[in-house]
Amino acid sequence: MNDSAQPDETSRLLRREERAGYRAVLIFPLLILAGGTCGFFFTESFGAIASFVPAMLGFVMFTMGLTLRPIDFGLVARRPLPVLLGIAAQFIIMPTAAVLVTWALKLPPELAAGVILVGCAPGGTASNVVAYLAKGDVALSVTMTSVSTLLAPIAMPLLSLWLAGHYLPVDAGSMAWDIAKIVLIPVLAGLILRHFIPTLVSRLLPSLPWLSVSVIALIVAIVVAGSAEFVISAGALVIAAVFLHNLVGMSLGYVVAAMTRQPYNVRRTMAVEVGMQNSGLAAGLAAQYMNPVAALPAALFSIWHNMSGALFAMACRRVDRAHGRAKKAP
């Protein structure tokens, strides 16, 4: 009787863990949605703190650095193909998809530039949680996010200048330096701090995602406050652009991995990593280097990509349950 009860208890605990994971991913977009709603109704209050956005982004990147370890980059040497393939897909598929979406929907210049900036951003930190929930390759997800973030000071300004420069002026040099200050330096600082005081940082790790998403929600509130008058008039068009951009990115990320015969868990990770961008960074840079309207697509992307990621994770788990086990590539 005890032997038969043990599997039931284990299954119950696993189901509880699964439900908790889903709630965590679903709460993230709800918090960001709440931030956007507050920004829409309290424009003056949030507009008054717009100058703090770079510092807020630096804090988010610092919390990301605290979650990293040098070993997370070891995968580049051990399994270079999926890492290089994923990074290439990240900085090719999403910028290209952004250009195609803006062309197909005939977006006005400000919104087009904003969508393209989202496409040029590195992978988002929430992708690591979604990769775990989707039973993807979590180590690969962390490595791809980390490497794409470290490449952002070079890749993001150059791609933005090339693809969005004809919509709005882009100061690639200043953007590169600011990305280094608010991304590269804080991430490295967090990485170093964890190396020297690992015990203290380990105690903080459970709260870091909630701190990070709370700050991103505040950034979204500031962005929406600056473009509140355009939310109603252009809201439907921006939502369509964000939905298509995310869908194309996740789909092509999976397809590229499948075409190169990667295992199923790697395919899932590629879909998540390519489709989920660091939209908080894109929102802050758009507000600083373009205009508040250009930051609107990034604000909405922050909400939607977490929701689509949660739906993707649910679909992956249902596929696994239907087959009785996780699939492996042929």
UniProtKB/TrEMBL annotation:
The keyword DNA damage does not apply. It is found in: Membrane. It holds the Pfam family SBF. The chain crosses the membrane at residues 20-42, 48-68, 80-105, 111-133, 140-163, 175-196, 208-228, 234-257. Keywords: Membrane, Transmembrane, Transmembrane helix. Gene3D superfamilies: 1.20.1530.20. This is Bile acid:sodium symporter family protein. It comes from Nesterenkonia aerolata.
